[in-house]
Design goal:
By secondary structure, this protein is of the alpha/beta class. A hairpin with a 5-residue loop joins strand 1 and strand 2. The protein has a single domain, classed as Restriction endonuclease-like alpha-beta roll domain (Restriction endonuclease-like alpha-beta roll fold). Helices cover about 25% and strands about 35% of the residues. The strands form two sheets. A five-stranded mixed β-sheet has the order 1-2-3-4-8. A three-stranded antiparallel β-sheet has the order 5-6-7.
Length: about 110
């Protein structure tokens, strides 16, 4: 998980990766002003969402955004030990570049804030 904290130590934005249980999501939503969850893509994410999606609707500060399976192979060549990425989000698409390689990914919003 990643946190964006204010100067006073409050968690402004909690970013969670994977398919956490409801208890962890409840903890994140209780501690942070905004929570963004990126479940792993593929059929396991769809199964996880079908089992948990209805219960997660009650969290007003939770967004659930998934990336299509083809995003992994498109972004993987940019992964390096000391990588520097640029990202531009516009018109529902995310454009990534490391200066040599570019990839455009269209995330799917399962739950918006």
């Amino acid at each position: 998980d990643l946190w964006q904290q204010s100067l006073s130590g409050e968690i402004e934005h909690w970013i969670e990766l994977g398919q956490p249980d409801e208890k962890r999501i409840r903890k994140a939503c209780g501690r942070a002003h905004r929570v963004t969850l990126h479940p792993y893509s593929g059929s396991s994410a769809e199964i996880w969402w079908s089992q948990n999606g209805e219960r997660l609707q009650r969290f007003d500060n939770l967004a659930v955004i998934t990336f299509p399976a083809e995003a992994g192979p498109a972004l993987a060549p940019m992964a390096r030990r000391n990588m520097q990425l640029q990202c531009n989000i516009q018109d529902g698409e995310a454009w990534f570049s490391d200066g040599e390689i570019e990839a455009t990914v269209k995330p799917e919003v399962w739950k918006a804030i």
